[in-house]
Amino acid sequence: MLELSRVSKNYHALRPLRIDQLAIEPGEHVAVAGIDEHAAEVLVNLVTGATLPDQGVVRILGRPTSSISDSSEWLAVVDRFGIVSERAVLLEGLSVAQNLAMPFSLDIEPLDAPLRDRAIELAREVGLEEREWDRRLGELGSLARLRVRLGRALALDPVIVLFEHPSAALTRADAIPTGREIRRTIERRRLPGGKGMASLTLTADLDFAGAIATRVLTLDPVSGRLADHRRGWFGRGTASL
In this predicted model, what pLDDT tens digit does every residue of 167-217 receive, in sequence order? Predict the structure, then answer.
């Protein structure tokens, strides 16, 4: 589904973002620790083809992002991803249902019955309670807002979901159960042909990483090598999933 090989991208930080080798198969849930918020944004842009690496290759479904020739082709690629990020715009003055309906239509005022039904189906899927559906988004806490972001990311049936530091605003009590809940939600989704949806989580929270992912990697920022967290840093070698 996704492969990065010898990737380097300079983004005016202390050192370039480097990823030596990373490959994600259908149905895999991978978390990478050791990437701060700025680097996470750079990596998401590389993965989705929004920017190209200075060195190395990023492949989406086997195709190098460098082969994307125009904006229409790129938009078709981006639709394969669901992105859960604080950078994704939510409309604070509109209801949860209206925000969840936006991937389907911008004609959400008022929200007609068929569109509302699709939004409510998403709300149920991501664990939003009925009492929250018609509340203004600005009235909700961090956990409910994360669920709205997840619903938006799942709306167009992506093949892989990308998470940028999703637990940053959660309480410690919420982080681990929320990670497990998100993983169960994604695992229930099936792609055409019966394959599972995949996910890539960028986080600084190793406890949350262990809850949302089936494999947790830590990044050595100097070499770009990814180590399996459970094996310990010095027993690593290059990790490929």
Answer: 999 999 999 999 999 999 999 999 888 899 999 999 999 999 999 999 999
Taking 90 as the threshold, does the pLDDT of residue 234 lie above it? Answer: no
Rounded Cα gap, residues 29 and 219, in angstroms:
16
Task: Determine contact, residues 205/40, Cβ cutoff 8 Å.
Answer: no
Q: Which two tokens stand for residue 25?
A: 């198969």
The DSSP bridge pattern shows strands 215-219 and 29-33 to be: parallel
Query: If 0-12 CB within 10 Å is exposed, 13-18 middle and 19+ buried, where does residue 49 land?
Result: buried
Residue at which a domain ends, from 157, 179, 205: 157
Distance CA 132, CA 30 (A): 30
- Are 169 and 149 part of one and the same domain? no
Q: Report the mean per-residue pLDDT for the chain.
A: 93
- Domain around 110: 89-157
Rg (the chain; Cα; Å): 18
Tokens of 213: 């992912």
pLDDT of residue 136: 97
| Domain tally, the chain | 2
Q: Please report, for the domain that includes residue 11, its CATH number.
A: 3.40.50.300
